[in-house]
Amino acid sequence: MPVIFYLTGDEQKLFSRIGSSLREECNVVPETGKFKDTPEARAMRFRLTRVHDPELKNAVSKFSDIRTEDEFNQALQGVDLGKINERDFIQLAFAIGPDGIGLILTEVLNNAKNEDHMILAASLSELRHELLESLSASPSSA
Questions:
Q1: Which residue in 6, 36, 84, 117 is a FRET match for 108, CA 20 to 30 A apart?
Q2: What is the pTM for the complete model shown?
Q3: First CA to last CA across the chain, in angstroms?
Q4: What is the per-residue DSSP string for the chain?
């Protein structure tokens, strides 16, 4: 059964550079979801985020004060996603939004070396896809 990846054009280019043996069972679907995020909306989502890990709580509180994309990108790179439990990760994914998930996905695609990386990339792409659909349907995205 093929693994589905929802990828933007730039992500598809990164994907094509991954070894062919890792791409064998993969099906790439163009990501067409659109959502224009704003620092204010992201800050609101961070204020609504409830995480349990003390280290992540500290990071989340800092995220709610970020106002520029550069600050956001830099802060996101400082979060160790490998230490986050599933419940906190879902909260964080909602808060960082599709753009933040896309940044993480790009990093994973750039460094994909094994099947675990591919599963993570596919999962991130599906999570972003679902979030894009959800946020695009909300009244505030019009």
A1: 36
A2: 0.86
A3: 37
A4: -PEEEEE-HHHHHHHHTS-HHHHTTEEEEE--------HHHHHHHHHH-----HHHHHHHHHHTT--SHHHHHHHHHT--GGG--HHHHHHHHHHHHHHHHHHHHHHHHHT--SHHHHHHHHHHHHHHHHHHHHHHHSGGG-
Q: List the one residue out of 62, 77, 142 whose CA is nearest residue 107.
A: 77
**Spatial contact of 5 and 28, defined as CB atoms under 8 Å apart:** yes
Q: Is 28 left (phi over 0), alpha (psi -120 to 50) or beta?
A: beta
Residues 59-75 have pLDDT tens digits of 888 787 777 778 887 88
